[in-house]
Amino acid sequence: MTARTATEVSTSTLYCFELSFDAVPGSLERVLGEFSKRDMVPVRLGTRPVALEGPGDCALGLEVWVDTRDAHTADVIAAKLQVMPHMRTVTLARVAGSVQAAA
User: What angle do CA 100, 77, 63 make, to 5 degrees?
Assistant: First the structure.
């Protein structure tokens, strides 16, 4: 596998997965494993706490940007994430432009 330049990433098709899931041990690893299984490395990754209504409830918000020209693969990953234990929401969006412009 070779390193990709910023120019190569900026001309690719990016998909952004916005997720929220219960913050329980193993959840983050399971989510990122869906990308790893397909030899995909996120070009951007961010987490944030998600406020919930009940006291003691704890959730995590995750934004994962991946580079793939295959819309079907992005849809399959979103479907797999949706049925994971402890998953609350999954949103998939195709992103126009480069990672640097969206940062």
Answer: 35
